[in-house]
Amino acid sequence: MPVAGSVTRPASARPPLRSRTVFAAAHVVADPRADTSPDGPAAVDWDATLAFRHHLWSHGLGVAEAMDTAQRGAGLDWGTAAELIRRSAAEAAAVGGLLACGAGTDQLPPHEASLARIRGAYEEQLGLVEDAGGRPVLMASRQLAAAATGPEDYRELYGHLLRQATRPVILHWLGPMFDPALAGYWGSGELDAATETFLTLITDHPGKVDGVKVSLLDAAHEVRLRRRLPATVRCYTGDDFHYPELIAGDDHGFSHALLGIFDPLAAPAAEAVRLLGRGDTAGYRAVLDPTVALSRHLFQAPTRYYKTGVVWLAWLAGHQSHFTMVGGLQSARSLPHLRRAHELADGLGLFPDPEFAAHRMRKLLAVYGAEDA
Prior knowledge:
This protein has helices spanning 46-58, 78-95, 115-132, 142-147, 151-164, 191-203, 219-228, 243-248, 266-277, 281-288, 292-298, 306-317, 335-347, 354-367; strands spanning 22-25, 62-65, 99-103, 135-138, 169-174, 209-215, 234-237, 256-259. By secondary structure, it is an alpha/beta fold. It has an eight-stranded parallel β-barrel with strand order 1-2-3-4-5-6-7-8, surrounded by four helices. The radius of gyration is 20 Å and the shape is globular. Residues 1-5 have low confidence and may be disordered.
């Protein structure tokens, strides 16, 4: 099976899904030939990385660029992320692809940054995203979590950013299961108190928030939150455990999606949401519900290492020629974990060529000295 080695540029992306706004948070493809180290600047295979974005757009999904699935703060440094945003924005503009881009503070050291420096870092990244033409996602900041003394620091800093943003942004709430350094975000370790700060920020800045991306793996909380959002503000689920029911919604509303699991699930995710748009909820659930077992496996604790399984499946599917990751993160999951991911994905029919995927599975077993497994 041929592997992506150059960017395929169709005349246009497939039209975006209509009934829901759906972004897949996309991974990056490392350059396996680069002489780098886990703590050095990331080396990216730009052709394969951008080809994968076109794969997502070809299914009608939007691309959430330079987010945690792309290993922001876990192998992808800000300098390389900035180049990724610029390149992806140019590709999106060329084909009409939907694009949102993460703006954070990861050009700063992890600790001991002042609130003024954190604000400046956000401003730098927000400006780059806006100049590139992407929809900004104000990512949760490790530096802010370490420096803030309470809810007022969050309201003041985010309020400043929202006032200066030239277009509505997506606010990003990433739970500590994805990044332990984000514990106590929004100024409280108590979920209800943090939620009140979050909602106050949104209502204090009407017209400045396109939506909120919530990754807390707490479906009941997400439903309560989305029912309290202003009518103009979307809730983008980031819940990789409960996404079928959250996207389907209830009598009071539904969630849109910005999900890492839709990186490997592009085809069935797009098919399911199109069925939902035609009013076929049963068909939608029949397609998407069986994928949850794979998602729960990839996102099992420690959840922050889910990126390894995402890239593993991209390699098995033929989207890239190797299983190397920036930051050396290919070592973050065990061989049994990867084997089970292969089994689950194969059972879902995710591989264009199942025998090709099995061949690559056997190659990795041989490298591990586990051919008999």
